[in-house]
Input
Amino acid sequence: MLARTAFGLLNRLFPAEEAHAHCDIPCGIYDPISAKIAAQTVLKMVMRIQALPKPDPNNTEAVLAYHNSLARYIAVKEQHADLCKRELDILWHDYFRPEHLQKYPDLHNIFWQTLKLASRCKQTVDRKAAEDLVAAVDRIAEIFWETKGVKYSDPVAQVRFGT
Output
């Protein structure tokens, strides 16, 4: 009983911090699909922002609905650009090893440029940057699967964004 009380007191005085991690053990479970979906979501949100019809400024309800939709699209674009960066960072730091750099000497630059594209997508509503982000993440996915000896096939890349 005394031990539980002492532990409870210590826990209140020095609470444990919440930790977030993918797999620093490492678990060996890596897949670029989350980064790919995030990049594709960024592109879809850019397309929705650009296609959002401007409301009649005299129609307060339409103006509010426009701003609500715009804010939601921007928030999703930002969240998924961050998610893309986080997922790529996990692959870069936890999965890829020196032997991969020997086979793909431009791998560091590919990651660096892709992460810069994700940042650009957060800063702008640039469809070309979003399309380039999707293509760059696809290239990383292709390299990832090649390192596993798997022929790269991507049904997600066949999704049409216009619908």
